[in-house]
Amino acid sequence: MSTDAHATAHAEHHHPGTKTYVQIAVVLFALTALEVLAYEMAHRPTMPLHELMAATLVPVLIVLSAAKFALVAMFYMHLKGDGKLLTSLFVFPIIIAASIIVILILLMQYWEVMH
Amino acid sequence: VSTAAHAAHPETSTGIDNRKLAIWTFIGSECLFFASLISVYLVNKDKSISGPTAADIFEIPLVTFGTAVLLFSSFFVVLALNGAQRGDKKKLVMWLSLTVLCGLFFVGMQVYEFQHFLPQGPGVQHQCLRLQLLCPDRIPRHPRHPGRALAVHLAGAGHSRQAAGPQGAEPRDGGALLALRGRGLDRDLPRRLPDEVSG
Fold first, then answer.
1. What is the crossing angle of helices B60-86 and B89-120, to 10°?
2. A18 touches chain B (CB under 8 A)
3. What is the pTM of this model?
4. A49, A91, B134, B141: most buried, per Cβ within 10 A?
């Protein structure tokens, strides 16, 4: 086994402990609460920053959900401790998938505007 | 690395367990699969003529609870893994049991949703998605229409110029395959869904 392969194999065993898992769970819960708060602020005129949140709700929710997604992938799916090859195997299709969704939405919008 | 470690992790050219490599490759391909489904949903969202719309059928509290259950199952399974790595059998069994319970609940929720949705009408015969996928009349005829490209993409058939029809005017691509799938189902579509067809 080469030195690099050794390092990769050892990295596979560096999984977080219970304390880290609980901390991540708390952060995920907090992010979810923020998402709910953002939704309520955007939909209730009596809430503070209603207009600002109504205008920026979608980007805010995308950023918060992306953060949750990254935390789950990094810690609960152990990508952080695993080799870069596995991260690449996951991130590359994610980029293609996001591109497919964005391009198709733009294409449909363009078609509807033009016709 | 000891002999035991070698036995647990056979030597590979990447240094990564092939099983782990395989499961991440699978997850990567799933991302592309779901990108297609999400694209179809977003493109067709709120475009149903006769309904029901997403707002009519989706129950946010139930979906929220299901998402929470999924997150908890992720949490429980890593705690079970942690127990296994420490050799703590009691902890492993406890967290794994909770994970299984979460899984069972989620499957039960899926069964409930299908039983709940179908009597309301949003079956395959009424969905905009179904019309796009299975009804050849609803697949955009313009060869450059993005909706047609999407239908072809989902059919997995590609866009084959070599398989053009006798006149070569209408390529027999994924649209033809979809038409074959939908033909038997769509004979009586005008009678059953006059609003959607006329739309």
1. 160
2. yes
3. 0.60
4. B134
Q: How far apart are CA B71 and CA A21, in angstroms?
A: 12
Interatomic CA distance for residues A81 and A90, integer angstroms? 14
Q: Say which residue the tokens 């059998």 belong to.
A: B89
Q: B57-111: per-residue pLDDT in tens? A: 667 788 888 888 988 898 899 899 889 988 999 999 999 999 999 999 989 988 8
Q: What is the ipTM of this complex?
A: 0.71
Q: Which residue of B has its CA nearest to A9?
A: B15
Q: Residue B70's closest CA among A6, A25, A95?
A: A25
> Nearest CA to B145 among B182, B165, B124, B174?
B174
Cis omega (within 30 of 0) on the bond before B136? no
Which residue is it, tokens 């367990």? Answer: B17
CA distance B188 to B143: 26
Shortest distance, CA B81 to any CA of chain A (angstroms): 9
pLDDT digits (tens, 9 = 90+) for A32-53: 889 989 988 998 888 888 899 9
